[in-house]
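Chapter summary example.
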Amino acid sequence: MLPQLPHRIAIRNSPGYALGLGFAAVLALMLFLTAVGLVQLEASQRRLEGIVGNQLAKVKLATRMRTSARERTVGLQQLTILRDPFERDEQWMRYLSNAGEFIQAREALLALPLTADEEAVLKRQGQLTGIAVPIQERVVKLIWAGRALEAQRLLIAEAIPAQDRVLEQLSALYQLQEQKTQQTVKQATHDFREARLLVLLLAAVTVGLALLVAVKVVRRTRRADSALRQEKERAQVTLHSLSDAVIRVDAQGRIEYLNPVAVRLTGWTTDRARGKHPGDIFNIVRESVCDTRIDAVGHILSGTASTSGSVDFVIAVQEGAQYCIELSATPIHNDHDDVAGMVLVFRDVTEMRALSRELTYHASHDPLTGLYNRREFERHLQAALLDARANGVEYALCYLDLDMFKVVNDTCGHVAGDELLKQISLMFRQRLRKDDVLARVGGDEFAILLRRCSLERAEEISGQISNAMKDYRFVWEDKTVDVGVSIGVMRVAADSGDLKDVFRIADVACRVAKEAGRNRIHLFRPNDLTVARREREIDWVQRIGRAVSENQFVLYGQWIRPLGRAHKKPSHCEVLLHLRDESGQVVMPTAFLPAAERYHLMPVIDRWVVRATLATLRDLPAAVLRRLGCFNINLSGQSLCDPEFLTYVLEELKTSGVAPEQICFEVTETEAVTNLSSAVQLITRIKEAGCRFALDDFGSGMSSFAYLKNMPVDYLKIDGSFVSNIAEDQTDLAMVSSINQVAHIMGIETIAEYVESDAIRAALETLGVDYGQGFALARPAPLDELLQELRTTRIRKLR
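The structure predicted for these 799 residues follows.
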């Protein structure tokens, strides 16, 4: 910082010794003491405000800790879902950043004065964090080991509850700090009022003592003359030893003194420069407008301007040398308040300003490609939104995601991937207009803001980029890779929503283009059903994760009744999954299972269903369980391919104590055939453990009988598309009959779906089908209600 000189320096003549003047000086002293008292009062107020500010700082730090802890948990959950290594690395950096912010906030909070209650809460929070962090580290290790599903289980079962306990302590700390802040503010106000009254009383006493002090004025004046001479000498020595350049001029603007730094900076000694005007030995200009000379000396001496602390000045000295400076100019006033001279102080900040420019550049640009980074692009996009709302200007946003970029990294290495990004960045730049904004917003993701551009024109520009990518071949050593780009394009106008909405829609439109076959363009228009569907699916991903962690899923059940000659067999029950939303409404599985399938969340859901079903059955009386058939649990194809699913099932069975023969797992024929090897292996191992297995929707797939003999299943569930019309359609009747006969020959029992009428039931009994399932036999109901019915009703009423 520049030395803090007073806003004005006054030069006074030595006072006389007349008693009248001395008395006047005493009265002035009285008023001065009163003013000092008031100044001290203001200083007291500022100190009190500092105490309040300290308390508010603690509240802010506690809030940062809570936010960072929540963001870290969300980031950890995202790490368990992401599959792309690049995206996972990027998410890992955000995760570490949140951890760092949490630690910095906590250290800063511990550095502040804390109450005993706050220290106790922070100590408890530290203990709980010490418990939570190892669990989170275990989750991260599982993720990096490729065991994402196990990481998800550990996250849900242990990491999130442990982090919630930490957040509870942070909430308690936040409440303590709010209470303390309110108390401090109240006390500060009370103390300030008392201090003000005290100062007023002091002023009154000062007036009474003024006469007694007057007799000492003359004596003290002599001492003041001596002190003034000493102070002048000290000031001269101080100016001589300062690290900043100091120049003193007189009332006519002529140089009187240069300290050694000013001599070095200007190249002029004090003797050579004395009597010259500053403009004769150097020029001061603004860095932003280099041809605009600043006559700081003339303006200040004339009283028309004041310059202090400016940061964009350049001083040009002899031989063409230039330095960036910070300038402070302070006038010197005489007894009549006229300007008697001036002190110029400037500091050489050339290196500091160059470093500042470099830091500013890196804060807004991607270091690899030289393009804008995401933060700077968001700033431009926000300005575009404001312009669109204020002036009706139309923009277009293009979100680009490279296709096959991972192939380049995997086959050629990350150095090649970096080179590819540089080449593609240059290609994009060459096909854009001068005012368009191009940024790298992710690993292999780019964004373009087209200024004053219609959607149709944006489509043309995107098409040019897409065609250029189709013709582009990336060559690295002896390898050649074709790289494409998927582009989502949307109009940015006054009705486009906020920054978050615009980015989200453009990103989803890009995903739609990629899922449509890659190297394509998708234009988002109002009422775009495809983008809306993808947004709903992404929303469901978050809701499903919340449902698993907060147990918002609800188990339903539907009875599977024995038919005809099998009427003495016990009824089975198929376990069905529903979800209860925030308003308490029950959501059907058709609403959220497609999103779970697309984003590979089915293994997590299947595990939840297994655990919840076994926990529910564990509470049933053993006598009731023995008289029942099995409970059917549906499995997805994703769980069939999960090598850890069998171990999970066996551990849950052992923990619950439920007999394995009372659990029957169902998988559709299509999923079983698609994952035949995994399905056969899983079915075999599950049956060895004592559980049963059913093949669902049999007859709907492309294999049916051809693969049946390779699957050791206990039940065949005949697809409802055949069953629903057997009372009227002879072809369907024959199909159901043939499936039933083949199954019985193989020792497999049959279950007919979609039994919706008595006529269908009668036809099935005639054919000898073992079980039926449908509204004509029983409707789905909450599983708890069905089991409660079992506790209170004799089992024969269920048949």
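To summarize the output: The chain has a mean pLDDT of 79.
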